[in-house]
Amino acid sequence: MADRISVPDLAAMASLSASHFSALFRKQMGYPVLQYQTMLRMGRARELLDTTGSTVAAIAAEVGYPDALYFTRQFKKLHGATPREYRDQHKG
């Protein structure tokens, strides 16, 4: 999950140009490739926040964000809460 595969690499695996791959991906998935990758990474982050006691920095690194502050900003933009706020709101 931490390794982001580039659009050109994905396109090459499918024997398509990057622009054609991107257009097909968006048509099929409903999202651009990078947005979809971000959604997957943030989904994994939510899972880790819900099921582990790992620090936000450790979770950020595990899902491919070496900068925990950037991860926190991206998480808040997508979920309306920081990772810590999310964890506090979803404690069982």
From TrEMBL:
Residue ranges of domain HTH araC/xylS-type in the record: 1-89
* Record's keyword annotation contains Transcription: yes
A single Gene Ontology molecular function, please?
DNA-binding transcription factor activity
* Keyword Nuclease tagged: no
Q: Which InterPro entries match?
A: Homeodomain-like_sf, HTH_AraC, HTH_AraC-typ_CS, Tscrpt_reg_AraC-type_HTH
Q: Which Gene3D superfamilies match?
A: Homeodomain-like
Keyword entries, A-Z: DNA-binding, Transcription, Transcription regulation
Q: Which domain of life is it from?
A: Bacteria
* PANTHER family given in the database record: ARAC-FAMILY TRANSCRIPTIONAL REGULATOR, HTH-TYPE TRANSCRIPTIONAL REGULATOR EXSA
Spell out the protein name for this chain: AraC family transcriptional regulator
